[in-house]
Amino acid sequence: MKPIKSICVYCGSGFGGDPIFTENAAALGRSMAEQGINLVYGGGNVGLMGTVAQSVLDHGGYVTGIIPDFLKSREKLLDDVQETIVVPDMHTRKRLMFEKADAFVALPGGIGTLEELVEQMTWSQLGRHTKPILMLSTKGFWKPLLTLIAHMREQGFIRPGLELNYLVAERVEEVIPMMEAAARRVGIVSNEEAIESQF
């Protein structure tokens, strides 16, 4: 049994300034499809978000898109996905993305990508889940955030016992093996009572 059956991918609704970002989004989508891992994502067909979803579809994979009603026209729904869920607001979108995913990957993106990534790190820190969280730091993209996290730790705001659980990959080929290894090591738990009984 594969430990990870679905991955939620957070990424930009733009392409960024380097073609490698798009190449890696497409490569991740292909890898997920070839390994039978479903994609959960924000539902649009623009930028890296559309690239990863289209790549999963092009290689025979399954895609669940979750999009708030107000973003349907701006982010343009990707019509070919097997499952599209339109929700009333961002909070419902994020909760459903969490519930439907066994792991989370953050590709390069903007403030929305950062917010979704940090929220999952916070929930994990508070013992709400043990799902793997990974940053694909293409060309060092996430290095400033990692520096900030180290600074928070040095200043005493990330304390022993409240460590952050995250993985960092430099190459797209490392993403799925690293997350599967983490899932096998700690298990995937999202049952709040089960988690809280361990603390």
From TrEMBL:
Its EC number is 3.2.2.n1. Keywords: Cytokinin biosynthesis, Hydrolase. One of its GO terms (molecular function) is AMP nucleosidase activity. Coiled coil: none annotated. GO terms for cellular component: cytosol. One of its GO terms (biological process) is cytokinin biosynthetic process. The keyword Kinase does not apply. It catalyses: AMP + H2O = D-ribose 5-phosphate + adenine. InterPro entries: LOG, LOG_fam. Gene3D superfamilies: 3.40.50.450. It comes from the Bacteria. NCBIfam families: Rossman fold protein, TIGR00730 family. Belongs to the LOG family. This is Cytokinin riboside 5'-monophosphate phosphoribohydrolase. It comes from Microvirga aerilata. The lineage of its organism: Bacteria, Pseudomonadati, Pseudomonadota, Alphaproteobacteria, Hyphomicrobiales.
